[in-house]
Amino acid sequence: MKPHARRLIAGGIVAGVLGALASTALAADIRVGITMRMISENGQKYGQMVMDEIGMINEAGGINGNMIQATLLNDECKSDKGVANANKLIFQEKVHLLIGSTCSSVTLPIVDVTAKAEVPQIIPHSTNEKITKKGSAWVFRVPVSGRYYAGVNAKYVGENIGKRIAYICAADAASQNDCEAMQAQMNSQHGAEAVYVAQVQEKEVDFRTHMQKIKSAGVDGIMIAALAETMARALVQSYEAGIGEEVRRIGSSSASNSPVPAIAGDAAKGVFFAAAYAAADTRPIARLFNEMVRSRYGIHAPDHDFSQAYDLVRIVEIALNRASLSLEDGDLAADRTAIRDAIASVKGYRGLGSGEISFCADPTPQCRDGNRTAVLIAYSKGGEDYVTEVLARVTMPEDFGL
Q1: How far apart are CA 188 and CA 320, in angstroms?
Q2: Distance, C-alpha 105 to centroid of its chain
Q3: What's the CATH number of domain 147-280+375-395, 3.30.565.10, 3.40.50.2300, 3.40.50.300, 3.90.25.10?
Q4: What is the per-residue pLDDT across 335-367, written as a single tens digit (0 to 9) for each?
């Protein structure tokens, strides 16, 4: 049985804190800094799970006898706060590895910080394709890049729904990327131009004017690219505007977050999206993971941000065990390089994602977008007790979208 599977079976909550782990920092500790968006209940639980899993590694003896000293900070999905967190973790805490962030708009500027400081950075959630296109030798992405999601969504939409699509695009970096990439792929694959495009704020509350215009346009589908709460409001208002269920609703990857069906209720039914993990997955490891998340964190069905954070910790564990580390103050730069190279050596990792995750040494999207397998998922029931179904799994060519 694989180590990560044994850990899932063991279960149990290891005391995690939203700061440094309770263990006393030792000179030989491996220092890991984490910055994530924790302004929602789910966001707090993503961070808590990362800390819990690191705590379990320490309880099992650590990495080659060395403990991981982890510091978790909340960047609130604000780029300035994320950059400040990264600087604090790198230059004050002197971390060996940085994990983060959740929001692409935060991760994008942090990539510049870690590249200049030469600190390895591994990303748990951010999907904006520009992150790995920056060419940093220090960044790795666990989630599926938006360039892959766009291709999968566009193929399914053009072949099964239609080509007259309207777009609601929120201002955060991931949503903007998802919207632009979907429009480009609909044009490339099907010769279809957008029927209607609305640019809205991240926390927009009133979509009624846009929905009336979309209703008049007679579209086949509406893509809503926004963070979870904003998306849920837009879905509800689309039905309030009289747009029937025959017009399919397409979500960006954040549609996988549980607040979408919980807030949208019946309006979530039929919404489909591309993600990295489906709670409807029937593999034994997925069933064990679903039960662990339910029992530990009270989540009805874990979204892919839970699974991606879990897979990230497992990949970090593999890499740290491979890296030859001095952990002496004078060898910090060498240890950071060793960790970077060890992450780059991870190939064929199979965890909760529907496909394998592989990295390599070149500072290119082909090497640093490790997960190329998207899952098309639809809500068959909304509300707190929502139900999903898997429509398809698609592994994309590594060069797709470049």
Answers
A1: 42
A2: 13
A3: 3.40.50.2300
A4: 999 999 999 999 999 999 989 999 999 999 999
- Reported as a single tens digit per residue, the pLDDT across 166-192 is 999 999 888 898 899 999 999 999 999
Query: Phi and psi (nearest 5°) for 214?
Result: -65, -40
Distances (CA, A) of 237 to 168, 195, 223: 12, 19, 14
Q: Rounded to an integer, what distance in angstroms lies between the CA atom of residue 246 and that of residue 270?
A: 10
Q: How many whole angstroms separate alpha carbon 113 and alpha carbon 119?
A: 9
pTM of the model: 0.84
| Residue-range domain boundaries for the chain | 3-144+281-372, 147-280+375-395
- Please confirm whether the linkage preceding 101 is cis (ω < 30° from 0): yes
Ranges of H-type helices in 118-268: 130-133, 146-160, 173-190, 208-217, 228-240, 259-264
What's the one-letter identity of residue 389?
E
Give pLDDT, residue 1.
41
CATH fold of 3-144+281-372: Rossmann fold (3.40.50)
User: In the predicted model, is pLDDT for residue 75 greater than 70?
Assistant: yes
Give the integer Cα–Cα distance in Å for 29 and 46. 23
Q: Answer yes or no: is pLDDT of 215 > 80.
A: yes
Name the residue with higher pLDDT: 62 or 24: 62
Cα distances (Å, whole numbers) of residue 19 to 48, 121, 147: 10, 19, 34
